[in-house]
Structure formats: C-alpha cells, structure tokens
User: Fold this.
Amino acid sequence: MSKETILSAEDLKLSFQEATSMKEVVSLMPVLMQQTPIDIADILSEVSDDLLVQIFDFFTIKQQAFILSEFPIDRQYEYQQSISKKKFALVFEEMPSDDRVDLYQMLSLNEQNALLPFLPKNIREDVLYLNAYPEETAGSIMNTDFATVQKTMTCSEAMDKVRLDAPSKTTVYYIYVVDEEQELQGFITLKDLILANPNTLVEHELHSQFVYGHVDDRSEEIAAMISKYDLVAIPILNDLNQLVGIVTHDDALDVIRAEQTEDMERFMGILSSASEEMDYNKTTIWMHFKKRIVWLASLAAIGTVSGYIIHSYEDAFEKMLILAFYMPMIADAGGNSGSQSATVVIRALSLGEIKLSDWLKVLWTEFRVSLLLSLCLGLLAYARVAFLSHNMEMPPEFTLAQIGFVISLALSVQIVSSALIGTGLPLIVRVLGGDPAVAASPAITTLVDITGLLIYFSIATNVLGL
Assistant:
C-alpha cells in the first residue's frame, strides 16, 4: 500500500469523525466505498452508533457483513443493539461462520433467543452447532465455509459443484474430497481442478496425504500446525473422522496473537485470559488495577522474607558496611539471569522445541551457560569493587582483594542459582498441569531475591568469618 493511500485513509477517517451533517457524510461515501472492508472498519471505528447504521445502509447486506466482521467484537455487539433483530439477522446471516458464532456468544441469553427466530434454519443450526464447542478448542474457532466434492465426480462436475456452493473466497483454495458418509478422503486444490482434464475423476487428482485436526484439539495446537506446515486452512474432523469444519490461517494468527499476549501478561504478573483480550486504550483504570494487584500484593507479602534475612545478618552489616553497598548489584544480576532463562524455556515449550522429558538436558544446558555467564560477571564484579571501593574504610583484618573475591563469588553463585530457578520453575508448573507462563517474572524475581540474599550473606559470613 502506498503512502498516499494510507494518508488518504487517515484523512477520510478524520473527515467522518468531524462530519456534522448527513450531507457531508453522503459526499464522502464514494471514496469510502472504494476501500477494502478492513479499511472501512478502521475508518468508521470511532463514528457514533447511529451514524454507523446510516452509513451501512449505503452498502449491500453482503458488504455490511464483511465490514462488520472486521470490527472489534465489542463494536459488533454495540451495532447489533442499534438496529432491529430482524434487520440485523440479514447481516448476521452473511457473516463468516466463525465470526458469526463469536458475536453470538457475546449476546445475552435473551438476545440470543430474540435473534434465532429471524435466522434461516440452516444458519440457526450452524450457529447452535458451533456454539456448543468449548472455548479454546478447534471446534470453537473453526468455520463451515468450505467446499466439498465426491471422489467419484469428474473434475468438470466438481467445478460445477464448487460454483454452486459458492463458499467464502478465503477458503475456496482447498476443496475437500469426502465419501458418502462425509469422511475425509483427501483434498484437491482449485489449481488442480482448473488444470485437470475435465473428464478425469477427482480420485485420480486428490492428495491423500494431508494434515488435519480434531474438534477437541486445543486451538493453539491447531494454529501451530497451520504455521508448521504453512497451510492456508486445516480440516477439522469429529470422532467419526467426518469433516465438520476448517480453521483458516487468519484465525490461526488471531489465536497465536492472543496466546502470546496472554503468556506475556502472565509472565509479567498480569492476570488475564485469552477471552479477556482488550484494547489498552479502552480498558478502564479499574480493570488495569485488578489485573495487576493480585500478583504484586502477593509478592510484596512474600518479599517480607527478604527483610527478615537482612535483619538476621544485621551484625555482619555493622562490621562491614561495604556488603550493603553491593546488595543491589547481586539482586539485579540474579533477577536478570532468572528472567532470561525462564523466557528461553517458556518460549521453547510454547513452540514445542522441548518436551518435559527433556528436563534434565535443559537444566544441564542452562547450568553450563550460567557457568560461563557467572565467570564473566564475577570478573566484572571484582573489577567494579576494586574500582569503586579502593578508598573505602574497612576492618583492618580484611583486604579489598578478599572482599572483592567474596562479592564476586557470591554474584557468580547467584547467577547459576537464578538460572536454575528460572529454568526449573516453568518446567515444574508444566508437570503440575499448569501454564508455564504463570511462573511470572515478578515471582521469579522475588524468589531469586530471597535466595540471593541467603547466598550473599552465607558466603560473606563463612568466608570472612563475620
């Protein structure tokens, strides 16, 4: 897209926001109607509900459906409240089946019951069928806009059936071959059909080796398969191996984005779920507060252990104040090391690069990496002590070299310890059946702070005899 097109779209968006009369809106419609559905949705994202209803009347029902599907789900809900159920049912019917059921699930029970009588029987059954699948499963994100042909058909007959079915343009690339019981036999591409001899049987052209998912598979597993095999869509089968839907690449991208957002928020100690994905600017202060306070308050309470440890070594502080001077350096190094290891492990688990059975190998790898890191950072810590504290007063029985050695040794041990904690915690959570991302960065940092203080003061008191 050219820079001029982007600027034009932004100017058009601003013009609709500033429009004060229907006459101004009408003058803008020729330009708006030349845009793609996703651009139209963006341009109209901030107009009032009443104006949106009037603007939609300029488009056909099918165009309205495609544009509405590009709006955020909360705006779709607001739109359906602005018009009659009878009028909305016409638009709802033309929406892609997966977007249709997502919006249906946003409605209250009374709103659902008010909408269903206005829908054709086949649409009503399709919505209720897809709505029955649990959240975060393949069934909950699949759509039914796909084409099927029989393997006993000729390629010419198959083309005629595809034209008759007229499925969504985004899913016509793969045409699925089924038998009389709707069991999936393979697939044929639109290119195959076009290039094949019209009298050739479909069974001679079909691809019998194919990737598929089941309705009960987790949605992120399906998204990972689409990404791994670089698919436009993946067929979804039921327990009888019958084709019941497909998941397209754009739905897979939505799942991956939601999963990454959820993992990142959990890793940073922000409580959320995939179904709770919200626009930052549209989220209230109260919601931001509620998502963050639980972890922070809990960890603040646990953090009192750090204060108890410091209090226990109060005598060591009095004898050697220099130890307090380097406490932040020890804590920061440990926190960074633990967070790095946790991030690497959580990412590898999410992408399927490592399994739980690899736990010993993963710990061994991170242990060796942390040893190298501890050697480098230990030397840097010694140099830092020598440079910053050469004029500092200290007990006559100790030399700066001894104190520098103790601090660098404590930091080195802390690096290794923190790396093992950051590696082990996500693995333990996965073994217990949880999400590794809940081994959040604040939790790792708090645990590392506590162990770091114990390591620091234990080494200092034992080596220096404090």
Observations:
- The chain is about 65% helix and 5% strand.
